[in-house]
Amino acid sequence: MDLSRIKLFVLDMDGTIHIGGKLFDFAKKFFRRVKETGKRYVFLTNNSSKGPKDYEEMLKEMGVEDPVVFTSGEATAGYIKEAFPGKRVYILGTDSLRRVFLQEGVNVVEDDPDVLVLGYDTQVTYEKIRKFAIFLRKGLPYIATHPDINCPSPEGLIPDAGSFIALFEKSTGRVPEKIIGKPNPEMLFEIAKKFGEKVENIAVIGDRLYTDMEMAKRAGALPILVLTGETSFEEAKKEKGIFIAKDLGEVAKLI
C-alpha cells in the first residue's frame, strides 16, 4: 500500500482509534508518525450521540493533541437548516445532538413538528419511540443522521441508529428520505473543502465496510479498513478495492 500521495487521513473513531473511551496504544504511534511526516488527520464520526466539542474534549482526555472532529449530527443540522429553513424539527436523539441543532439556529420542538430527525439516541425512552412513530405516520419529512446498525463497545456490539431505522420501518413502513452520514460522500467532500485538499490525496481509515469504506470508494479517496472494530477479516477479504490493515499501528509503519 503506497501512502506517499496521502496528505490527509480522515479517521473514524469508535472501533478505529478507541473502544469505549479507551484509546488504543497503537493509535498514539499513528498520530506521532503523521505529525512527523508533515501530514494531517481529522476525525469523522457517524456517532451523533455527542457533539463535536464533546468528542474533542473526550479525545483530549484520552491524550490526543488538538483534535478536530466532524460529526454526522453537525452535518445533519447544517442540511436541515439549508433544506428546511425555519421549519419545526423533532429530534429522536440525545441532549447533545439537540444542542448541536440549536447552535445552528434550527427550530427544535417537542410537538407539532414539520420535519423529523433520527439520531443515535443513547438516552432513548419508549415515550420518544412512541412519539416518533406517531409523527412518522403523518407522512412528515424523515431524515437520519447515519445508517450504522451497531456501535462497538467494550462488551461487544450494541444497537446504533440503523437498528432504530429498522424498528421504525417494521412499525410504520417508513424509511428515511435522506441519510446524511457515511457512506454519503458529501461528508468527505465537505472535509476536503475545509482542509483545502484534493479527495484523491485523502485516505479514509475505519472499521466498517458499509460506511467508512463505502464513502471512501464513492468519493474517490483511499479506503483503509482496520480490524479493530465491527468488521472481521473474513468479511473484509470478500470486499474489492480496499486495503486491509490489522490496526492503525500497521498503517503508521507505511507512512
Mind explaining what this structure looks like?
This protein is of the alpha/beta class and 255 residues long. The chain folds into 2 domains: 8-46 and 182-252, Rossmann fold (3-Layer(aba) Sandwich), CATH 3.40.50; 83-179, HAD superfamily/HAD-like (Rossmann fold). It is 38% helix and 20% strand. It is built from 10 helices and 15 strands. The strands form 4 sheets. A 6-stranded parallel sheet has the order 5-4-1-13-14-15, with helices on both faces. A 5-stranded parallel sheet has the order 7-6-8-9-12, with helices on both faces. Helix 9 (233-236) links the parallel strand 14 and strand 15. The chain is globular. The model has no long low-confidence stretch (mean pLDDT 95).
> What percent strand?
15-25%
Q: How many helices in DSSP terms? A: 10
Classify the secondary structure makeup into a structural class.
Answer: alpha/beta
Spatial order of the strands forming the largest sheet: 5-4-1-13-14-15
Query: How many structural domains are formed by the residues?
Result: 2
Q: Helix and strand string, N-terminal first? A: EEEHEHEHEHEEHEEEHEHEHEHEH
What are the low-pLDDT stretches, counting only 5+ consecutive residues below 50? none
Helix content: 25-40%
- Overall pLDDT confidence: 95
The total count of strands amounts to 15
Give a short account of the largest sheet. 6 strands, parallel
End-to-end separation = 10 Å
The radius of gyration over CA amounts to 18 Å
**CATH H-tier superfamily of the largest domain:** HAD superfamily/HAD-like
Return the CATH class of the largest domain: Alpha Beta
CATH level-two architecture of the largest domain: 3-Layer(aba) Sandwich
The general outline is globular
